[in-house]
Amino acid sequence: MIATRPLRLLLAAALVAGGLSSAQAQNWPNWRGPNHNGSTSVTGLPDTFSKEENVSWVVDLPGAGAGTPVVWDDAIFVSCTNEEESGIIAVKINAKSGEIEWTHKFGEGIRQDDRSDYAGPSAVTDGTHAWFFTGKGDLACYDFNGRQVWHRNIQSDYGPFAFGWTFSTTPLVHKGTLYLQVLQRDVAVDGKGFTDKENESYLLALDPETGAEKWRQIRPSEAVMESREAFTSPVPVTHNGREEIVVVGGDCLTGHDPATGEELWRWGTWNPGKEPFWRLVPSPVYGEGAILACGPKGQPVYAIKAGGKGTLLDTAKMWVSEGKEVTSDVPTPLFYDGYFYILNGRNRFLTCVHPTTGDVVWSERVDAKTKLESSPTASDGKIYFISHLGETFVYKAGREPGLIHQTMMGEDQSVHVRASIVPANGALFIRTDTKLYCVKK
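Below the sequence we write its predicted structure tokens.
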């Protein structure tokens, strides 16, 4: 029987209401996994591996990119730069063999600065389609056979982006809606953005099957200059039965009605002095009634009580981190098995934090030669992350710390490895700047 669209939606709703099936929970449909917090329930993952040990396959990618691979059964989706075509391509890889099944160019341009490229956003999939976005605003939907269902450019439709650095955010597909946020400067920067009127920051909701707009919610901010810029992604949160889309950036944290975009609550700020160069990179993460917001450039991590209404006061803060170790300028924290794990990529610390008190359970110095900008992921009692050079780390999760394994997966030229390590369907998928590895026992 072929399900009609309403029937498909009812079936999807039933699955969500009853919890993810075990098969779905093994997939990694978006950059932070099936739980939107960096964790999953995959087991049987190897404790040790290298470029040769426990490698099921390795494939040379068509180009660079910082997006985390997304996995659904036998399909892997990534976006890559393509220098020959001067654009960004959507790529599907067979998860069993490592064979590249198709590539399609969907975005123009490679980069606007030397620190990153337009292939920074991760793809997202629901098991029948995959959606890809670029830092230049191209947004496209493909089916699993590689047919482009629709394409649009967000800059063309809503105005030029006003970002000093290359823009990146990953779309969210959740319960029949595609969400995309653009948190940008209100005035043009280096000729980018509107020069004759204010540039608005907004949260956008689209029909994932057609790309048609459902609503567009303007998101104001009191931040100034670069501190208005956010390279974060929206996250769905359900707390005490209320669903919302949580957005962080512009010196504040907000929750929105998924159906209308209406702002339900707002908390801020980690920047009372209105420092002008505090762009934000880590996305929010929810766990045990707390929503984390990471202040940039060595600032604390703030835990805000979920379920608020209106403008929240200081009483909404559950805890604020202390010291130079518990902070994150780029990696999004992980919530796994009852604890938050915060990766300080600049000073190279991994810290386990109690979710409701903020107490530090343990903090370990990471023996990396360079910055860590991948967001940690976890499954099978282990935490995974990778450095710019491709130095790969596996730590024990839980109350007792410990380094389980360390290896080099990068190549000689690796300098900007940022993708998260993906545990899915009994394997680890590790993206460097030139290769994708499938690691399994």
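The chain has three helices and 33 strands.
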